[in-house]
């Protein structure tokens, strides 16, 4: 009979079973002892924190549950949950005929089709997201009131609390509730739409449980716990890790979000994200969701940003930031090459605002900001955050790149305006165009048809209008019909011949690309265009 490798004698099988049972008993006994130790530790920690008010600083989490080594989040949740709030807001509902006006500023700046904007369209407006969305004319009714809800958390024993600006924007009444069922009337102390943070105050209290912001930023991969009020389900807890740092989601010039994969849904806005020490490391603000539900991508304002903003709101009710007053854009590799920069770093100045501190200091369109008070500027977003982190009236030394060399200027920073003041009186209606002008030979292989702006109704008197782009043009991703070319290679242009001469000059110099200053609608930007297809 063939030898069967799977066949085991009865005696051997019995001995193996006894060995396995003994091992299991030993493991079970060890687990029981460990469980008793953990239970005792949790009980001692809870007894201690009930005697103090600052739940983030006075607990056993630091000693008994080292960072990243807990097997349960229960100790963290039991410790900090009393400070987490459900926020309910009564708002004046805007006219349904103006859907755009219902959208908080934090979302209003997002481009059409952005998942975060679609999420607000569906869920974010008072009483649902279908108001004013139907076909046909919208009727104006009597003034209505809407209800909004979100999350928050106490940061002091005397009733200061943090939430999102978009939760309490246009609020008439604010009520906060704790996990034990208590409710309090609250008032809005101040808001900061640019970071989407708001500070609330409950009056006539002095012994509330509260939490505090952590002094250290979490690392990518650290465990975090989110607690909030999703869909009105107060005290809901989810957990995950920090997926990324420094995320720019297109919500504003100061985007610097934590990305977490803990489940965050509608109603979590303004709630805290904790580390395993019970410290707040982020304020939940937005989710990325093509469908409107949680897909494991959420964004929180990091504690280092929130701390500065909340402290200033507490002191003065508003946030003031330094202001340079220049429109900027990133420096691409093509732009860097066209300007003679060794690497694509810094912030390209598109246009200084008239009368701004930057213009008064001599900063010009086409300059690249390389350095601010010894800090190397990595990109446009870095410059925005750096200047915003400085106080108004601060004197700063700025290093520019201009005409192939460095230039230093000193700027007295102004105060960042409360609202976007880059309004334009330009008429963007192109109107009726005149007959096309002859395309210069130097532009023939780029597939561009140009006309002087002065010959195009509504285009103004400066620059050259792009009237057509061929399907196989190599610049179709950089320019579009209706764009107005203002400068080519730092020289102002007013006719197609001017543009052609600038391109021909660049070819003769052996330049691979030429920098064009282009106006699209009310916005101005720079694009680097290759001087030929080849």
Automatic annotation (TrEMBL):
Read off the InterPro entries from this record: PDZ (IPR001478), PDZ_sf (IPR036034), Pept_S1C_Do (IPR011782), Peptidase_S1_PA (IPR009003), Peptidase_S1C (IPR001940)
Which residue ranges are recorded for the region named Disordered?
Answer: 121-146, 413-441
Q: Give the stretches traversing the membrane.
A: none
Tell me the keywords, alphabetical order: Hydrolase, Periplasm, Protease, Repeat, Serine protease, Signal, Stress response
Entries under CDD domains matching the protein: cpPDZ1_DegP-like (cd10839)
Q: Which Pfam families match?
A: PDZ, PDZ_2, Trypsin_2
Reactions the enzyme catalyzes: Acts on substrates that are at least partially unfolded. The cleavage site P1 residue is normally between a pair of hydrophobic residues, such as Val-|-Val
Q: What class of enzyme is it?
A: hydrolase
Q: From the Swiss-Prot or TrEMBL record, state where the protein is found.
A: Periplasm
Locations of Gly residues compositional bias? Answer: 126-135
The family database entries (PANTHER family) matched by this protein are listed as: PERIPLASMIC SERINE ENDOPROTEASE DEGP-LIKE-RELATED (PTHR22939:SF130), SERINE PROTEASE FAMILY S1C HTRA-RELATED (PTHR22939)
What protein family does this chain belong to? Belongs to the peptidase S1C family.
The protein here is known as: Probable periplasmic serine endoprotease DegP-like
Natural source organism? Terrihabitans rhizophilus
């Amino acid at each position: 009979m063939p030898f069967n490798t799977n066949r085991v004698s009865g005696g051997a099988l019995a001995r193996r079973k006894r060995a396995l049972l003994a091992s299991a008993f030993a493991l079970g006994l060890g687990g029981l002892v460990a469980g008793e130790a953990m239970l005792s530790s949790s009980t001692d920690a809870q007894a201690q924190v009930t005697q103090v008010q600052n739940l983030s600083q006075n607990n056993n989490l630091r000693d008994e549950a080292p960072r990243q080594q807990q097997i349960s989040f229960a100790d963290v949740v039991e410790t900090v949950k009393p400070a987490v709030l459900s926020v309910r807001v009564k708002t004046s509902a805007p006219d349904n005929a103006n859907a755009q006006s219902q959208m908080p500023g934090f979302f209003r700046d997002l481009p059409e089709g952005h998942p975060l904007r679609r999420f607000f369209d569906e869920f974010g407006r008072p009483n649902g997201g279908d108001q004013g969305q139907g076909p046909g004319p919208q009727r104006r009714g009597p003034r209505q009131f809407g209800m909004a809800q979100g999350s928050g958390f106490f940061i002091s024993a005397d009733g200061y609390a943090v939430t999102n600006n978009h939760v309490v924007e246009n609020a008439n009444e604010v009520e906060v509730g704790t996990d034990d069922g208590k409710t309090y009337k609250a008032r809005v102390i101040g808001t900061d739409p640019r970071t989407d943070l708001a500070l609330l105050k409950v009056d006539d209290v002095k012994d509330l449980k509260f939490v505090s912001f952590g002094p250290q930023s979490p690392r990518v991969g650290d465990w975090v716990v989110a607690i909030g009020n999703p869909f009105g389900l107060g005290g809901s807890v989810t957990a995950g890790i920090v997926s990324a740092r420094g995320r720019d989601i297109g919500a504003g010039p100061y985007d610097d979000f934590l990305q977490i994969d803990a489940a965050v849904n509608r109603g979590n806005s303004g709630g805290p994200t904790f580390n395993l020490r019970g410290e707040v490391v982020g304020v939940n603000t937005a989710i990325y969701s093509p469908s409107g539900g949680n897909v494991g991508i959420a964004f929180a304002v990091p504690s280092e940003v929130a701390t500065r903003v909340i402290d200033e709101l507490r002191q003065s009710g508003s946030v003031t930031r330094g202001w340079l007053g220049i429109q900027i854009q990133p420096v691409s590799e093509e732009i860097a090459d066209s300007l003679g920069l060794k690497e694509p770093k810094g912030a390209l100045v598109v246009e200084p605002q008239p009368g701004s501190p930057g213009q008064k200091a001599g900063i010009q369109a086409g300059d690249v900001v390389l350095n601010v008070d010894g800090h190397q500027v990595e990109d446009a977003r870095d410059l925005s955050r750096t200047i915003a982190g400085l106080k108004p009236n601060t004197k700063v030394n700025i290093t520019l790149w201009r005409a192939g060399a460095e230039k230093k200027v000193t700027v007295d920073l102004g105060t960042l305006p409360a609202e976007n003041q880059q309004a334009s009186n330009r008429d963007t209606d192109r109107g009726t165009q005149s007959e096309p002008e002859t395309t210069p030979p130097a532009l023939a292989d780029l597939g561009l048809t140009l006309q002087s702006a002065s010959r195009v109704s509504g285009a103004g008197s400066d620059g050259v209008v792009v009237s057509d782009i061929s399907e196989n043009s190599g610049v179709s991703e950089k320019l579009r019909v209706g764009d107005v070319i203002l400068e080519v290679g730092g020289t102002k242009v007013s006719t197609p011949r001017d543009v052609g001469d600038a391109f021909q000059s660049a070819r003769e110099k052996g330049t691979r690309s030429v920098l064009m200053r282009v106006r699209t609608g009310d916005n101005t930007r720079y694009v680097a265009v290759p001087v030929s297809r080849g």
